[in-house]
């Protein structure tokens, strides 16, 4: 059984108090009996008491107050560092916020350097069995611009940015040196990524694999690529989310305050409303895929996505938005073929640039694992449940809160949020029978 693998193991989890990290730790501690999990804490203020109790009262959890940066010390005492090196079997690097507006130079210090330093450190652990790096499925979003298809297939593999004759690992190191020195790289300038963040993750993946190859430990490295992360379907409870953890919630808040009758978006699809898609995946699917693939020994890249069967058309997505607006709204989506960086697009489309695209992310590795598990996967959330109509009703509290922030940022009257958005209770106050 999957959970048996973790019994007696020592895990080191970064980002343990974040959106993914919290769900991951809760799942581990509620289903298995690891010898020790080392992470960080702020759960009492973000979870209902019964859920937080599993984390805050666990005797298996050690909280480390550290800070990832460009050194391997993480601001931890030397004694703690040596203890980690001696005892840890599994390292899960889940610490990283989605920073779509940051420059590549900023991301070098917030994404790439910490990931590289932690990789270097973890690969020296004598008892290391698995190193897990959380990336993003949109690390390869530049493929949209290099393809003529209206539905771009993305496999669970690395897509080199240079020529076939280039040394794959050397090019990653060369590009990393360029980024550190100039804040950019030749390969980044030559490819149209939607955000610097996507390239930062693309390069970080390659750097992690380069270090693993250098030490002959490629078989120990697992790269998890979530798509657009959404609230949980089931674990730790239906609708579990953090305020800034679900991008679609922020998009909904901004669109609901839009005062006009048209919202301009970019797409090359002939029928964008039907053909363009949003791959939003519940956070508990991301967590279970990661933990299952660690347990069965998968290496390389794995997509944690809703996939071709579970993704949403833009029309489905948009209908859910409109249902949450208090005042009837006949705004129309106006599609243009202009570049996804065009200043003529709606401000949220310029930020959330994948609206209007469609990616068919491969799920082959998870499908194969699910087939092998057979009946033993009944308690696992390996695939998104799309049996119910897509809805944002469990996000009303967060949408309203973010709408207030959006109004303040744009110097609009605060009552806009109250006038346009439905004000719901936090999901933690809705009772145990709530449905996602």
Automatic annotation (TrEMBL):
Gene3D superfamilies to which the protein is assigned, alphabetical: NAD(P)-binding Rossmann-like Domain (3.40.50.720)
Catalysed reaction, written as an equation: a long-chain fatty acyl-CoA + 2 NADPH + 2 H(+) = a long-chain primary fatty alcohol + 2 NADP(+) + CoA
Coiled-coil intervals: none
Positions of transmembrane segments: 12-29
A single GO cellular-component term on record: peroxisome
GO molecular-function terms, A-Z: alcohol-forming long-chain fatty acyl-CoA reductase activity; alcohol-forming very long-chain fatty acyl-CoA reductase activity
Alphabetic keyword roster: Lipid biosynthesis, Lipid metabolism, Membrane, NADP, Oxidoreductase, Transmembrane, Transmembrane helix
EC category: oxidoreductase
UniProt keyword annotation of 4Fe-4S present: no
Domain Thioester reductase (TE) positions: 13-288
Any Pfam family: NAD_binding_4
Family from the record: Belongs to the fatty acyl-CoA reductase family.
Protein name, per record: Fatty acyl-CoA reductase
Originating organism: Penicillium arizonense
């Amino acid at each position: 059984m999957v959970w048996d693998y973790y019994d007696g193991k020592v895990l080191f989890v970064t980002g343990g108090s974040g959106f993914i990290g919290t769900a991951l730790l809760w799942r581990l501690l509620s289903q298995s009996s690891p010898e020790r999990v080392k992470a960080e804490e702020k759960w009492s203020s973000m979870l209902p008491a019964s859920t937080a109790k599993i984390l805050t009262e666990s005797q298996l959890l050690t909280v480390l107050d550290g800070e990832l940066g460009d050194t391997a010390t993480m601001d931890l005492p030397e004694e703690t560092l040596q203890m980690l090196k001696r005892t840890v079997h599994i390292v899960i690097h889940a610490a990283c916020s989605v920073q779509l507006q940051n420059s590549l130079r900023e991301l070098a210090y917030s994404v790439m350097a910490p990931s590289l330093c932690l990789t270097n450190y973890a690969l020296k652990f004598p008892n290391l069995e698995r190193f897990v790096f959380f990336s993003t499925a949109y690390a390869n979003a530049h493929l949209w611009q290099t393809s003529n298809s209206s539905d771009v297939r993305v496999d669970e593999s690395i897509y080199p940015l240079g020529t076939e004759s280039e040394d794959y690992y050397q090019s990653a190191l060369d590009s990393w040196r360029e980024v550190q020195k100039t804040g950019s790289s030749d390969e980044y300038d030559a490819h149209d990524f939607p955000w610097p963040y996507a390239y930062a993750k693309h390069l970080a993946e390659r750097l992690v694999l380069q270090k693993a190859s250098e030490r002959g430990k490629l078989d120990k490295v697992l790269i998890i690529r979530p798509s657009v992360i959404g609230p949980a379907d089931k674990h730790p409870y239906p609708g579990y989310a953090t305020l800034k953890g679900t991008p679609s919630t922020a998009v909904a808040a901004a669109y609901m305050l839009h005062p006009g009758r048209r919202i301009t978006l970019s797409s090359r699809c002939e029928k964008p409303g039907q053909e363009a898609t949003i791959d939003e995946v519940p956070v508990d699917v991301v967590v279970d895929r990661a933990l299952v693939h660690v347990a069965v020994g998968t290496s390389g890249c794995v997509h944690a996505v809703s996939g071709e069967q579970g993704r949403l058309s833009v029309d489905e997505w948009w209908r859910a938005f409109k249902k949450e607006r208090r005042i009837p709204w006949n705004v129309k989506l106006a599609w243009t073929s202009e570049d996804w960086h065009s200043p003529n697009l709606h401000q949220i489309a310029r930020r959330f640039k994948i609206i209007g695209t469609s990616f068919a992310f491969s799920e082959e590795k998870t499908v194969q694992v699910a087939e092998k598990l057979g009946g033993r996967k009944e308690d696992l959330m390996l695939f998104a449940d799309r049996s119910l109509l897509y809805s944002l009703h469990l996000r009303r509290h967060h949408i309203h809160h973010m709408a207030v922030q959006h109004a303040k940022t744009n110097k609009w009257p605060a009552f806009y949020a109250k006038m346009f958005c439905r004000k719901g209770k936090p999901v933690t106050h809705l009772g145990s029978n709530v449905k996602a």
